[in-house]
Amino acid sequence: MSIEQTTIHQEVAAVYDYIVSLRRHFHQHPEVSLKEFETIQRIKEELDEIGIDYIPVGETGVLATLRGGKGAGKKILLRADIDALPLPDQTGAPYASLNPGANHACGHDGHASALLGAIRVLKSYQSDFAGTIQFAFQPAEEIGAGARQFVRGGFIDDIDHVFGIHLQSGTALGKIVATPGPSNASCDIFKIKVHGKSGHVSRPDLGRDALVSAAAIVTELQTIVSREVNPTDEVVVGIGVLHAGTNYNIIANEADIEGTVRTFSPQVRAQVLAAVERIAKNTAESHRTTIEFSNYDAAAPLINDLAAAEHAFKVAAKIVGEGNVITNAPKRMGADDFADYLAVAPGVYCFVGTQSDEKTSYDHHHEKFDIDEKGLAIAAELHVSYALEYLQNPF
């Protein structure tokens, strides 16, 4: 099999309007995590029209399969997440969200449409390659619950290689990021419930103040990064929620703390989580209160395979030129559950730039986030080229 890059480029250009139309449809009809019912229905309709077999994964996921016409070979998985955020849409675009309080403010509308465009092109090459390409249209990336439906369900146990793309407003249009090694941090979401004893504030000695205890816990947790972790390790311990009290003259009976731990190392991750629970427990005891601690494992550290990153660089260079491929991008403390796929098979997660002006410069998760849609063509071409190159020359 030898397909010229110019041919792939032309094939993607031919479906560009289709990709943009789909992206704008998804953007107008966003659905938040685990509620992507209309989104996945539209994806199924497109797969039916293209002629691709698929099976459901959970309630709002799909795994589609394209088998090459030249016999058995390696199996590669291409992934697109499809969920939106619980956020108003303030883009003012003609394709702005029609669903109040929901917004594709992270680019997942583009991920789904670019992958569907890539499938149309790959379908036309079906007779030219050996092996199998599978396509995961995954829900609930934003809450770290979607990839594990595919992984824990055994749907990708026999996959040899995985590949994913994220559009990126912080990167200029026409550039692709292919970074070897750690790329995105892990994400743990912890909750601490502090139990005290209510009473009148005029007699604090008769109560056990959960509010003061919680405030002390929040302060003490800040010492983990500065005093318990090697300074060369990148770690975040962040607190986003602190709720306590019902009235100005009542000692708080309970308090709630919610926060997150982000790291790039499984070992450091375990160390920091243990420290969070220990410090919270001991601090609470010093204030005559108790705690309940729980943690939600949202995503592991995302660590790209070195050989896969090199492969991605070579493929991306054919599309945008070597000078426009970034291989030394800073690591991101933002998490992505594509890491769950990388725990099953080697692969790489690339970023495609979509910023070209002020309108497309807003950060992900901002109410005005938008993309330069020309980046969708680059993403689709990268999907197609990476898959075909891997099947021809697996490593």
Shape: elongated
**Unreliable parts:** none
Radius of gyration, in angstroms, nearest whole number: 23 Å
CATH topology of the largest domain: Aminopeptidase
CATH class of the largest domain: Alpha Beta
Number of distinct helices: 11
What would you say about this model in short?
This protein has eleven helices and 14 strands.
Task: Report on this structure.
With 395 residues, the protein is α/β, with parallel strands linked by helices. The protein folds into 2 domains: 5-183 and 301-392, 3-Layer(aba) Sandwich (Aminopeptidase), CATH 3.40.630.10; 187-299, Alpha-Beta Plaits, CATH 3.30.70. The chain is 35% helix and 25% strand. The protein is built from 11 helices and 14 strands. The chain has helices at 5-14, 16-28, 37-50, 108-124, 147-152, 210-221, 223-227, 266-286, 306-320, 338-342, 374-392; strands at residues 53-57, 61-67, 75-81, 132-138, 161-172, 176-177, 181-184, 187-195, 235-244, 254-263, 290-299, 302-304, 325-326, 347-355. It has an 8-stranded mixed β-sheet with strand order 1-2-4-3-5-14-6-13. Helix 4 links the parallel strand 3 and strand 4. The longest helix is centred in the C-terminal third of the chain and has 21 residues, at 266-286. The mean pLDDT is 97.
